[in-house]
Amino acid sequence: MKTKELDALKQIAGEENVIISEEERYCYSYDSTRLEYMPDAVVKASTVEQISNIFKFASSEKIPVTPRGSATGLSGGCLALRGGIILLMVGMDKILDVNPVDLLIDVEAGIITQKVDMEAQKYGLFYPPDPGTVKTSTIGGNIAENAGGLRGLKYGVTRDYVNALEAVLPNGDIVNFGTRTVKGVTGYNMVDLMTGSEGTLAVITKATLSLLPIPPARASLLALFNTIDDAAKTVRDIVAEGVITSTLEILDQVTINAIEDYLGLGLDRNIGAMLLIEVDGQQGAVDAEAGIVMKVCNYNNALSCKKAASAEERDEIWAARRAALSSLARVKPSTILEDATIPRSRIVDMVQEVNRIAEKYGLRIGTFGHAGDGNIHPTILTDLRDAEEEKKVEGAIEDIFRAAVEMGGTLSGEHGIGISKAKYLRMEISRESYEIMKRVKQAFDPDNILNPGKMFTDL
Amino acid sequence: MTEKKKNTKKKDQARIFKRYDDLFNCSRCGTCMSFCPVYKNTNDEGLSPRGKLSLIEAISQEKLRFTDKVSDKIYTCTMCNYCDSECPSGVNIKELFQEMRQDLVDTEKYPLALDFLKKRLDEAKNVTFDTNEGRIDWTRQIPDSQPDDFLKDKADVIYFVGCVSSFSPRTFSIPRSIVQVFREAGVDFGLLGDEEWCCGFPLLSSGMKAEAKKLADHNIREVKKRGAKVLVTSCPSCYHTWKHEYGEISSEKMDFEIMHVSQYMLKLIQDGLLKLKQFQKRVAYHDPCDLGRNSEVYDEPRKVIKSIPGVEFVELEANMNLANCCGGGGNLESIDPGLSARIAESRAREILDADVDILVSACQQCERTLAAALKKLKKETKRKIKVYDIAELVLASIRAD
C-alpha cells in the first residue's frame, strides 16, 4: 500500500486503530499453520460502521482485506495471502444480550468462544460447539470456519447453533441474515452460506447463537482394546444400539505411547486403541446408556471398561485425551494436524490406511480424534525445515486426502480449505460444483478484495 | 518507555541466533494467549507469548532486527510464566525470553528505566531512591525494641527482608509482622541491615546476569558470616532467586537452608511454638507467581492458613499453578503501570467472586496491587475485602482477643 492509501486508511479507521510498523505487522502475518504473509496494514475493527467504511475504501482502491480473530486456524484462513489490510476483530468482543426463554445469546464476533459458554452457564445453559481452541478462538472465526469439536456426534458443529448474523459485504453494505426463531424459511438460508465461508464472502460482525440447557447428569467411560479394529467396531455398535454419546474419542497406539512418554500415566504401551466415551442427559437415561456402552465394549473384547465414579476419576480419564496433541507435539518440531473425515463406518479402514501411508513414507503418524463422527486427526510428526521431510509429508497428506475422498469422506471435517487445502479442492468437488461456488464468491465480491486467494486457486 | 539509549552496537553472535531449534518448536497454536494476562488485557498479539516468540524467531532468522519496538514488546511481561507451564509443545518460553532480554541488553536496546535500575543497584544496592542505610528503618515502630537489636553477629536464622518491604512504607507491616511472629516463637534471628543488598531479581529478569552475580556473592557471604542455618525471605521473587538462581549464578557455596516465610511459619506452628487463637473469617489465598508456579510452593501457605482456628478456607477458582497474575510481576509496573493495574483488576474480580472477608497473599507486591484494585472496585461492587499478607494473618490470629 502506498503512503497516500495508508493516510486515507488512518482517516477512515481512526489513527489509533491502524498498525503499520514492520515489527507489529509481522505479529499479524501468521496463524497456527506457521505460514507467513506480511500485511501492509493491520486495522483494529471497532464498530460495524467503521468496518463498512473500510470496505468502501478498500473496494474503491482494490486493496485486499482479510479478517482475523485469534489466528488459531489450521488452514491459513486469516492470512493476508496477497498483502493489503488485516482486519483485526478481537476488539469487538461484547456480549449484547442473553435470552434464556428463547435460548439465544447475541454477541459481537470477536468474543472468545469460551466466554460465550461461560455467560450461558450463568443461566444454566451451554454453548455446545467446543473446538480444541475454545479458550482462544473467536466466535467470528468459529463461524467462518464452521468449527467442530469433541461433541459433534450428539450436538453437531458451529453451523447448528448460528441463528442469525450481521455482516459487512466487500462493497461496504451492512447485511442481516437469519431469524431469532427456531423455524424460519424466509428467503435463502444465508446464515448457512456464511457459516463455513472462511471469511471469503463477508465479514461477520455480530452473531445470534442458540444455547441448550446443561444436561443434569453425565457419565465418563474409558475402554481399552487390543486392536483398533475392536475399538472401531465398538464405535459402530454403540450407535447401532441407539446410543448417541456426547463424546466418543479414539486414541491409537502411536498416540498412547506418545502420551505415556510425556506424562507417564502408566498406560499399557501394547494397547492397540483407547476409547473415551461420555454420555449425558437425565440421570436415568445416563445410567441406562452407560450400561449399554459397557456391554458393547465388553462384547467387542475390551481389555477393560471403566466408568468414572467421581469427578477426580473423570478428570483422570480425560487427562490422556487432553494431553494427546501436546504429547504428539513434543515428539518432533513440526506437528501437522490433519482432519480428513470419513463416514463412521470406515474408521477402521481409514486408520489402517493412515498406518500404511506412514509406513510408505517412513513417517510417524499418530491418530486420535472424534471417532463418533468420523472426524479423526492423523497427526504427522516431522520437521518441516528438512526439505526431504517436507516432500514426504506432502505426499502423505495427498494420499490421506485421496483415501478419505475414496471412502466417501471429505478433505476437511473442521479446519477448512483456506490456503492449505486449496490445491486439493477439486479432488473432492466436481468442475460444475466448483464453478458455481466460484460464482457465489464473485457475486459477493466482484472485485475479489475479501480474503483473496483462499479456497479457489484460480481467483 | 519509548526513550532508549541511542548507541546501537550490534553483537556478532546474539544468543538467540543459536536458539532457532527451540523457537521452531512453537507451533503457533495460540494456547498461551488464553493464559497470558498481558495479552488478555491488551488484545495485542505482539505482547502475547506467541507474538513475542515469533518476533524472537524472526530476529533469529534475520527477518527482523533488534529494534526499540521489539524491545518494548519483550519487556512488557509480568513474568508470571503461565505460558511456559501450559505450552502444549513444551517450548521453554521463560528461558527464551530471558535470552532475548540478555541480547537486548547486549545490543543496548533495553528500556531506559533499566539503566536507572542498574545504576541504582550499583550505587545503593537497592531498587529505591533511598540509601541502603535505611534498610531497617521499618523496625523503629516495633514495640520494646531498638533497630540495633535485630543486627547480630551470629544468628540461627537470617530474615532477608527484600527491597520493597524494606523501603516502601505501604508494605512495612509485613516485615514488622514477621519479626513479631518470630519473637513470639522465640526464634534466634537477625537481619543483614545495610549489608542486605538487592537479591538481583530485577537484573536477572531484565537480562543482566553479570551485574546480578555481584549481589548474589555478597548476600551469600553475609549470611554465611553470621553462621545462619536458615535463610528466610518474605518476598517470593527473593525466594525464587535465592533458591533457584543463586546456585547457578554465584560461585559461593550455600551451607544453609532457604525457606519462604510461609514454610518457616508452618514449621513454627507444627513445632507448637505459636499460639494461634480463634479468628472467625472466610479467607482465600492468592498464589504469588514466583512462589507458586515458579517455585512450586503451594501447600505450606495453605496449611498455615488452615491451621488458624475459626478460619474458613476458600480456594479461588484459579488456584495453584493455574492462578492468574496480580499484574505486579516482572518489571511491568515500572514499564506500563496502567496495564499492570488492569491485570490486577481482572484478578480482583475473580477474588470478588469467591465472596470472602480476607484475601491472603504471601507477597508484598501481590498485596499492594490487589489491595489497590479491590479498593478501586469497591465503588462499583460495594464489597469490601481486606488484603493480608500471610504473616499479617498469623500475627492477627496470635493477637486475637
Number of helices of chain B: 18
Assembly classification: heterodimer
Strand content of chain A: 15-25%
CATH top level assignment of the largest domain in chain B: Alpha Beta
Task: Give the helix level of chain A as a range of percent.
Answer: 25-40%
Radius of gyration of chain B: 21 Å
Radius of gyration of chain A: 23 Å
Largest sheet of chain B: 4 strands, parallel
The average pLDDT value of chain A, as a whole number, equals 95
Structural overview:
The complex is a heterodimer of chains A (459) and B (401). By secondary structure, chain A is α+β, with helices and mostly antiparallel strands. Chain A folds into 4 domains: 3-88, Uridine Diphospho-n-acetylenolpyruvylglucosamine Reductase, domain 2 (2-Layer Sandwich), CATH 3.30.43; 97-213, Uridine Diphospho-n-acetylenolpyruvylglucosamine Reductase, domain 3, CATH 3.30.465; 216-321, Alpha-Beta Plaits (2-Layer Sandwich), CATH 3.30.70.2190; 332-425, Alpha-Beta Plaits (2-Layer Sandwich). Chain A is 37% helix and 21% strand. Chain A contains 15 helices and 18 strands. In chain A, strands 15-12-14-13-17-18-16 form a 7-stranded antiparallel sheet, sandwiched between helices. In chain A, a hairpin with a 4-residue loop joins strand 17 (364-370) and strand 18 (375-382). In chain A, helix 9 (253-263) packs across helix 11 (311-329). The longest helix of chain A has 20 residues, at 387-406. Chain A is globular and about 70 Å long. The two termini of chain A are 21 Å apart. In chain A, 51% of the residues are buried. The mean pLDDT of chain A is 95. Chain B has 401 residues and is an alpha/beta fold. Chain B has 3 domains: 15-110, Alpha-helical ferredoxin (Fumarate Reductase Iron-sulfur Protein, Chain B, domain 2); 125-268, Rossmann fold, CATH 3.40.50; 276-399, Rossmann fold (3-Layer(aba) Sandwich). Chain B has helices at 20-24, 37-40, 49-60, 68-75, 82-86, 93-106, 112-124, 163-167, 173-185, 201-206, 209-225, 236-249, 261-270, 299-306, 332-335, 337-353, 364-381, 390-399; strands spanning 157-160, 189-190, 230-233, 257-260, 282-285, 312-314, 358-361, 386-389. A 4-stranded parallel sheet of chain B has the order 2-1-3-4. In chain B, helix 17 (364-381) links the parallel strand 7 and strand 8 (386-389). The radius of gyration of chain B is 21 Å and the shape is globular. The relative contact order of chain B is 0.11. The model of chain B is unreliable at 1-9 (pLDDT under 50). The chains are: A alpha+beta (459), B alpha/beta (401). At the A-B interface, helix 2 and helix 11 of A face helix 3 and helix 4 of B.
